Amino acid sequence: MTQGTTIPASLIKELREKTGAGMMDCRKALEEAGGEMEKAMLILREKGILAAEKKKGRKAIEGRVEAYIHFGGKIGTLIEVNCETDFVARTDEFQNLCKNLAMQVAASNPQWVSRDQVPAEVIEAEKKIHRESAIREGKPPAIVEKIVDGKMEKFFQSVCLLEQPYIKEQEKPVSTMIKEIIGKIGENILVRRFARFALGENSD
Q: How many angstroms separate the CA atoms of 133 and 45, rounded?
């Protein structure tokens, strides 16, 4: 299998089971490795993603609240990012991460941190829109749900902070960028919450 070849879902699942890394990280690693399992595992290890997955369950109760003001004071964000120790919270690497995440919120306007925070009724309403659209277009029933699944992935990438393309490296999602930092600093990192304010937004 050469680089650029479509990676079978079964291969992505196998890598995920072996490493515990996320589906998107596994897909990207396999694409970069040309479908070679051992090479893909090495890529994940080099990026610190495997180390990040091992630290995911550890408590993160320290950290900082970062503020960012953009566009001449017309957009502002607050974001809480947690780590395990106050020592790491005071490092330049962690503080730069917080600043970049606050900028990401200002620039890309996510609605939730991750897809598990998206209300079920929002997900169902979005699915209904895409399902009815596919049916109106005369798509065969066998592929309607595949179309809906594809549309929902794009939806989550648009509205969930961790799944958005990172503004400074569009080829990777925010979650992968965070995992790479986890691999470097050796502590779990958790985006707890954020708020975004735009001047005049929601005003009467």
A: 42
